[in-house]
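User: My collaborator sent over this chain with a note saying "see what the structure looks like." That's all I know about it. Can you take a look?
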Amino acid sequence: MSNFMKTLKKAAVLGMTGALAFSLAACSGSTEKTSESKDKDSKDSNSPVSIILTNGKGEIDAQFKEAAQAFMDANPDIKVEVNSSAVGDTLNVFDKLTASGKVVTLAMFEPYAALHKYKDVAADLSGEKWNDETTSALKNSDGQVIGFPFAVEGMGLVYNQKVLDNAVGGTFDPFTINTRDKLVELLDKVKASGVEFPVAYQTEAWSMGNHFSSLFLNQSDDPSSILPQIASGEFDLTSNDTWNGYYDTLELLTSKKYNKFGERPIGQYYDAAHVAVGKGESAFLFNGNWAYDSLQAVAGDTFGFMPVPVDNNADNPLNNKIAAGPTQVFVVNKKASDAEQAAAKKFLDWLVYDAAGQDFVVNKAQIISAFKNNPNTVTNPLGVAISNAIGKDQTMPFSTDFINAGDWSTMIGPDVQKYIAGEQSREDLAKVFVNYYKEHQE
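Assistant: Without extra context I'll predict from the sequence alone. Here is the result:
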């Protein structure tokens, strides 16, 4: 997510499925340095060190290049070349540069990709000082820190505060809606207040697939542990209360009674859904903090996040938490020269400890920092809501980090759409998950 999600918003108009067909090149596991890297090591030690950085969040390309220039101004012995992903093409920028013979020193990946597709790229960052400032560093199966947490994001039910305050006759508290029955009661109150359709649900395959449909993984303390159990047949989706519960809630949110697009629930509704909630014509949509700009909000309106109720047990942690976590991590390429790796680590330190680096992350890029020493706070109201939830321990892991998001969009998402459209049963949908994991085990 993730950046993954905001970039896909723009890609929707071009055809979401095609935009998500990631072409991921296999990465060599060799730790031997290339001849190019050896040549760089042998250069005059007074020569500037040049590093290539890939930015997976294309929407902040301009801010990233401005930050790189500020870093270079403060560190004239280092040159940073920023290569940002194209919108909807999160990882290919690394593959393209690598295929052309270039060594990317600092690569931004989604956590799942860093741990699987690119697991042989990452240098061990366990000894870096910034580990003391975060609990979100990405570790591999050996316990080594291999990912610097760059972007913390969250997802849940985005709501218009003014609409809900009016509906409840006071200040709406999202964490009071901790059962599905309470959600139904709230939706009815919104309708009674004059809002015909409380929900504007954009049912694009990526949103229904890798976002909503991965939430059930958080029923386990280790969300990744469920996936091999699905493949082996040990985990029966059709009898699992949490998996069924989330789809019961999805049926409610996409129904004709409550959903603005309920008559034809499957379509390209991203922009229309956000504008509807932004203008107060509807109260809810399911998305993440990256979606704020798309709301095209009326001046003065405020927005927040609400957990997605999965059942009627008010004590269920899933009903009381928002999914949040690092959706993009920086990996230092161990194939880069020693000098290049040192320069990359210096840039990461700059992001954490330098005032200009801290300002770039939070104020310029409007990204929730994963580092507790950053004194800045985002002004994006959805980012504020996520930050507040993190501070109050009202978050659970960002479930998309534990799956192959591209596959869940293109191989599972369309079947979730078919289910919502009434074209296949929930049992048929369960078979889609099982078949996928039988064929795509890591």
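A starting point for your reply to your collaborator: The first strand starts at residue 49 and ends at 55.
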